[in-house]
Amino acid sequence: MKTSLDTLPLITLVMLAAVVVALLTGAVAALLSRLDGASVPRALLRAGAAFGSCLLVVASLFGVIISTVK
Asked: Which residues contact residue 23 at a Cβ distance below 8 angstroms, ignoring those fewer than 6 apart?
């Protein structure tokens, strides 16, 4: 796959946005879990699961969008 210099910043920006959204989702999941009375390790496990699943969904969605724009 040959990428031009025009699409490389777009792909970088999209992947950065995906990581930021996943980090915010993980942080909110940990906070809500902690407010629900879960222990710190349990809250971190829930945050990790939320981070991973959100990153997978957002990256897949952005991948589909980028492939249709090409």
From this structure: 51
CA distance 42 to 45: 5
pLDDT score, position 14 = 81
pLDDT tens, 30-46? 999 999 999 999 999 99
Give the span between the Cα atoms of 38 and 32, in whole angstroms: 9
Q: What is the sign of the dihedral through the CA atoms of 37, 31, 29 and 46?
A: negative
HSE toward the beta carbon, residue 31, CA cutoff 13 A: 6
pTM, two decimal places:
0.78
Joined together, the tokens standing for residue 23 give: 């980090």
